[in-house]
Write a structure and sequence with these properties.
Blueprint (H helix, E strand, L loop, with lengths): L19 E5 L8 H8 L3 E5 L11 H5 L3 H5 L2 E4 L6 H13 L5 E4 L2 H6 L8 E3 L5 H13 L1
Parallel strand pairs: 1-2, 1-3, 3-4, 4-5
Helix pairs in contact: 1-6
């Protein structure tokens, strides 16, 4: 698909009646069990491969301070890799520009511990967490 974010082309969200989850993770795709579980639970979902996604242009949030997908999201499921500098830059830009936006970070415990400051106000789930666990973490943040 064209554009930086699959399924959206970086256009503003078109699902105003459902909670919107932006998944920032190059490993997620349309057939993902997490995406399927989120949609079954009533969430609208868009996926962005992040600044290092295959064929992806540079991250508009990092480069320009804004991204329509982030601005329209109710929660972000972030999995761009804390140990990757470009991933951390994106997470830092996200947290700096949208400090009230709930974020769920998918990272191994040891990685989250290494980068504790970066995930200080985020909910952390293991990459191996079952789709229903990820949905529960997101649902808890959208109900708050």
């Amino acid at each position: 698909m064209g554009g930086h974010a699959r399924g959206s082309g970086l256009h503003p969200w078109t699902w105003p009646d459902r909670p919107r989850v932006l998944i920032e993770d190059a490993a997620e795709d349309a057939g993902s069990p997490v995406i399927d579980a989120l949609r079954r639970a009533g969430f609208a979902v868009a996926v962005c491969p992040g600044p290092a996604g295959v064929g992806a242009p540079r991250c508009p949030l990092v480069d320009h301070g804004e991204c329509p997908l982030v601005e329209g999201a109710d929660v972000v499921l972030w999995g761009l890799g804390l140990d990757r500098p470009e991933g951390r830059r994106e997470l830092e830009a996200l947290r700096a520009r949208h400090p009230r936006l709930p974020v769920v970070v998918r990272a191994p415990a040891e990685e989250a511990a290494r980068w504790a400051e970066a995930v200080a106000d985020a909910t952390v789930v293991a990459p191996s967490a079952a789709p229903d666990e990820v949905v529960a973490a997101i649902a808890a943040l959208t109900e708050a």
